[in-house]
Amino acid sequence: MTNEQKQFLVNLVNTPAPSGFEEPVQQIWRDEVSTFCQDIKKDIHGNLTATLNPGKERSIMIVGHSDEIGLIINYINEDGFIYVKPIGGVDPTILASHRARILSKKGIVDAVIGRTSLHLLTNAQRDKKLEMHDIWLDIGAKNRKDAEKYISIGDPVVFGGDFCEMTNGNATSRCWDNRIGVYIVAETLRKLSKAKNLKHTVYGVSSVQEETGVFGAGNPAFSFKPNAAIAIDVMPSSDQPEIPKERFGVTKLGLGPVITRGVRSNNKLTNELINTAKRTKIKHQIEVDFGHTWTDADPISQSRGGVAIGVVSVATRYLHSSVETLNLKDIDLTVDLLAEFISKSKLEF
To answer: Does domain 70-159 have CATH number 2.40.30.40?
Structure first.
């Protein structure tokens, strides 16, 4: 990726936007995509759909979700300490000692996530699995009235750090899941916008509320009626300690995009993706679905009379944590694979 593309990626991952509160990231995505695609529509829930080459007989939709996991304020006690519920799949055992950002109506309010100090815990308390009600947010407020000057019930919260490059082309961020998806959609559209004789209509979607029930992507699929669709997401890599390969298979950072085969994934579309990767010598990996992909592809597959779906993922360590880690080259290879597939496929599924 160019320096400009990397900055676009960094802006996406550094901007807080949990499910239901995606507008800041959606605006960044729209501003960038509008430089090479002017036809961008927003629906009632906030999904954005950019259309390239409209009006062709056959069409394909590529979709990534813009939201991230987070927390939401549900109680402030008399001393000004703040209690939260999860937005999406949050493991409470990882939260203590994190810094957090409350996205209030007045702007970002910095907080720390606290729990009882180890010095003050009984042996039984130390052995107890941490639950969401065992932690709280501290903004330094004197009491509830003071806290309410800055934050309100229903304010969303994100935890964890921003983009940081590591060794060997790897990088970490709190929300690769799934800002890399919307980045890949944008960059695939950018590449296809320069292609000559593009045969099909291409819909690029930055969807909302995937983390809270795979909710958003079915709406643009219903509205635009694509013949096929590919969801771009992350998936857990197995190249870390304590991951049994017999149970989860083998996927690794730096070995290219992961193509899903299985029950819900359309076999013809999947095989064509794999053949495209082989023909162009793009490194790739395979995972399986056994009835659900757990991505935006699931609601799309059931839209109207049904849509042929595929999933292409980027292997990522430590998903749904504050230190999600992947290889940046895998992102570029995924863009290359999708652009080549879309430009050459007949979309006859």
So the answer is: yes
3-68+175-344 and 70-159: same fold? no
Long-range contacts: 89-93, Cβ < 8 Å, 24+?
A: 89/211, 89/320, 90/132, 90/320, 91/320, 91/321, 92/130, 92/131, 92/132, 92/134, 92/135, 93/129, 93/130
The per-residue pLDDT for 124 is 80
pLDDT averaged over every residue in the chain: 95
What pLDDT is recorded for position 200?
97
Strand 107-114 and strand 136-138: the pairing is antiparallel
Burial, 309: exposed, middle or buried (Cβ in 10 Å; 0-12, 13-18, 19+)? buried
- 124-134 pLDDT, tens digit each: 877 788 899 99
Tokens of 296: 């935006």
- Show the beta-strand stretches assigned E in 5-95: 40-42, 48-52, 59-65, 70-76, 82-87
Task: Please identify every stretch of the chain with a pLDDT value under 70, giving residue numbers as ranges.
Answer: none
The CB density around residue 209, as the number of other CB atoms within 10 Å, is 24
Residue range 164-197, pLDDT digits in tens: 999 999 999 999 999 999 999 999 999 999 998 8
Give the helix ranges, DSSP H, for the chain. Answer: 3-14, 23-33, 123-127, 144-147, 176-193, 218-224, 245-248, 267-279, 297-301, 328-344
Rounded CA separation 170/265 (Å): 29
Catalytic residue (one of 210, 211, 287, 324): 210
pLDDT value at position 304?
A: 93
Q: Tell me, yes or no, if 246 is annotated catalytic.
A: no
pTM: 0.95
- The answer to whether 57 and 199 have CB atoms below 8 angstroms apart is no
Q: Domain segments of the chain: what residues?
A: 3-68+175-344, 70-159
Tokens representing 60 are 């394909």
CB contact at 8 A, 318 and 238: no
Superfamily of domain 3-68+175-344: Zn peptidases (3.40.630.10)
